[in-house]
Amino acid sequence: MSALAITGMGVVSPTGQSPDQHWSSVMEGRSGIRPIGRFDAASYPVRVAGQVEDYVARGSMPSRFIRETDRFTQMGLSAADAALQDAALDPAELPEYAVAVVTASSSGGTEFGQKEMERLYQHGPSWVSPYQSIAWFYAATSGQISIRHGAKGPAGVLCAEQAGGLDAVALARRLVRDEVKAAVVGGTDASLCPYGLTAQLTSRRLSTVNEPERAYRPFDASASGYVPGEGGAMLIVESVDEARRRGARIHGTVLGHAAGFDPAPWTGRPSALRRTMERALDDAGIGPRDVDVVFADGMAVPADDADEAAAIGQVFGGGGVAVTVPKALTGRLHAGGGGLDLVTALLAMRHGRVPHTAATTDVPGSYDLDLVLDEPRRHPIRHALVLARGHGGFVSAVVLGA
């Protein structure tokens, strides 16, 4: 499959509300993980999260969008607006069905739904907003972006948790090859509300360490689980030929992708990570030695970290490639995390800097990883591999080219 040009980036994340702000935070190790402030979390075992502070949708979009949508969709709209502006692409100037929209979501409009359920139980059905029927829906962001920008091409949503943000790019890649000129693609999630956090606790993978600087430590000997977060990123993708025809700036290219699914734990079969990485490299037409950095999934659950470290070692050789987990500064953004990792990898290529894994200090020797610690590492990057795993067994890998 041919390469796909990335010509626009938009970010709404705990580390900043633009690519430049996000990159500055990543380089300085400035964390967006802090005590939960969106509701009183004192009675919850998890009391810290990656939060997008000072995000205000009002004024940047019509008031009716705000009444009709959840926070995760509003963040998606903001990031899509910024990505389209960055790409200097106006869907209205292209043929009617030339722009697709593909997003990822893992929880839908959780906060919107909680508020409407409270109204239902406290006051009765007449108090429930008519927009409840659509605002909770996983595909709400795709639909609202399409409406806002008149993008009438194919629209879809991927529900594969953290892996969904990468799988969405793969679907957009096929659409650009076969049907459309460009696509708005990415993911956002925002489930930092009592209902959303309670649902996440069932995974039993969340860290209950309530000191922000110690709560989420991927590949660390003291890793105790991950921290939830909100936000994500949107990208504009188009064929390399189309981008060059428009004179667009190309941030990087999508060269390869593969997806897999982990077997049930009781089967004793190995995870799908190794095979997924190998297939993504085959799709990109490159070998392990061509990869300069791996943006790891970094669950910060000891068993999962050990599995991922082993798979990376099997593909690249022990310590054979630089590895980083910049999401240690944001928490896991669920469907928003894959897109944000892609943006971080693209910025790393531009600046020739591999971000460090800010919170991790003690990597077990058995992992045999060249995990970048303490500070960013100067290193030219031609190719980057981005990994993501989603709750339930989803696995995805994307190969980016400079």
UniProtKB/TrEMBL annotation:
SUPFAM superfamilies: Thiolase-like. This is Act minimal PKS chain-length factor (CLF/KS beta). GO terms for biological process: fatty acid biosynthetic process. SMART domains: PKS_KS. Residues 1-402 form the Ketosynthase family 3 (KS3) domain. The keyword Transferase applies. Pfam families: ketoacyl-synt, Ketoacyl-synt_C. Belongs to the thiolase-like superfamily. Beta-ketoacyl-ACP synthases family. GO terms for molecular function: 3-oxoacyl-[acyl-carrier-protein] synthase activity. Keywords: Acyltransferase, Transferase.
